Amino acid sequence: MARPRLILLIRHGESEGNCDKSVNRHTPNHKVPLTQKGREQAFNAGIELSRLLEKQDRVLFYTSPYLRARQTLDGILEGLGDYNDHNYAVYEEPRMREQDFGNFQGGPEKMQRIWKERAHYGHFFYRIPNGESAADVYDRCAGFNETLFRQFQNHKFADVLVLVTHGIWARVFLMKWFRWSVEEFEGLRNIPHCQFIQMVKGENQRYTLTTPLLRWREGDEDRVEEIRKAVQFRSGDLGKEALAYIVAAEREAAAGRSEGPITYDDGDDH
């Protein structure tokens, strides 16, 4: 068995969908491109990756097929510069796509209702109409993990595995790998754009998550702003009353989430 010494997850760079709150009404989600800032973030991530690699490392990249993820990978490879072309391979993996929030998303009233329901129902199990729940994403991650474990049986497997993906998918992947509860998953904040999440292999062949993840706490002041950006992005302009309702529902849900420590080490062998 040849498990990689390092597994890196990275969320795509800033996309037009992160800035233009109406883009998903007319552009398919898988075709949303990066902004100029997002391309710069991807290039800088490539420079950062070059510092994490050892001279003889063989690197395997898996990327979501969504345009913003593939453009992020392109930027990373550009940022790597003179790194030996023969030392890495690239594959697209459809199971690494982001949670599906529906095809072309509806108008403000419809999306307000969906976000209110999601806040009360719970982010993990709530299924977006014509889309997915995070639980559906979990099933995809489980299948992908099994594929990785089979590939780890090959003694020629890469030294470093890099997964270029999306915020929800990355958190669900970690939830599956480290066996976190639903409450622990729902208590996690999103991952910043183009930040590497590092899983380091120990002498016992198990992995430790060395990148701390931010968690929501009841009463977080910046939670209001992040929720506002999320619902405005997917719903159009919301009134203060509608936004306050969603924030209150999110805070109520946060109060019931686990506050115990998250496990950052593998349990039994996978």
UniProtKB/TrEMBL annotation:
Active-site residues (renumbered): H12, E98
Name used for this protein in its record: Phosphoglycerate mutase-like protein
Highest rank taxon of the organism: Eukaryota
Organism: Komagataella phaffii (strain GS115 / ATCC 20864)
One Pfam family hit: His_Phos_1
Binding, substrate: R11, H12, G13, E14, S15, E16, G17, N18, R68
InterPro entries the record matches: His_Pase_superF_clade-1, His_PPase_superfam, PG/BPGM_mutase_AS, PGM-Related
Upper lineage: Eukaryota, Fungi, Dikarya, Ascomycota, Saccharomycotina
One GO MF term attached to the UniProt entry: catalytic activity
